[in-house]
Amino acid sequence: MSSKACPSSSYMSLSFLLPRCCPQNVPRRGIKSISKPRQNRFNRSLNLPLLESTTAAALQRKQFTTPLRTGALGTKKGMTAMYDPDGRRFPCTVVQMDRVQVVAHKTREQNGYFAVQVGSGWKHPSNVTRPLLGHFAEHKVSPKRDLVEFKVRDESGLLDIGKSIGASWFQEGQYVDARANSRGMGFAGGMKRHGFSGQPASHGTSLTHRAMGSAGQSQGGGSRVYPGKKMAGRMGGHQVTTQNVRVVKVDDAKGLIVLHGTSIAASTNEDSIANTAPTGSIPGPHGCSVKLSDAVKKPWPSVPTHLLEAQPTTEPVSNTA
Hints:
With 321 residues, this protein is an alpha+beta fold. Helices cover 11% and strands 23% of the residues. It has a six-stranded antiparallel barrel with strand order 1-2-10-9-6-11.
């Protein structure tokens, strides 16, 4: 045989240097994902508008959760019971409205938002400070025991100063949000305040059956107690909001509003109230002030025309001097 190699064999040995032919419409595999990325819920895309930091933009974002009209103040009188058309008994809370009047307005031009200042009850002028007494005298309203404000969406929800708000401001069957300060229970331990199970009742436990136990780590956790740690402390005495409370009965002559004792969940039968599951109660002890406003998680109620008209107050204002 000849000592020279066959030319075809040299071409075969160099075939690995030739480019490979890839089939059409077949994606190449690599480190980059071929699936579409998930939509980012944060405002990091160039196509999304930046959030405005002005007061008008903030009010526009909150316009869907801001009530169209003001709320009212009431005094929690106690509890009773009523019966639904099916004969089932359900608990109720009685709230009485005592000389509720519009005291002042908050406007966007002066205060940055729209709100109605509402007062209830009566207070002797000798027990009112001079600045607050002048505030009542300026608006020709007698001194009030309680004074709060309710935000409204726009200036159409501003009632006339001095207008009285009665129990008929709320309609039977509508839903309201009730806010009040909860009953203060003083300094409470971890078992009562947070529901801790406590230490074992036996097996060597001595004098620490209701103790909280460890409050944090040593070196591994930074030798400190983390902020927000559930510990013993003051319990109650803060504002609690109960949403979606149904108005069962309204007595405008006596100023009484009867609320369902518990929050009403969704029910297939609107006439039957007792078959709904309780999810909360009207906050506060007897005699406390309860702020009632239209429920933000329910459709806004249809307000009768006669309730929006200005009504002269029948309360004497001679005590403002």
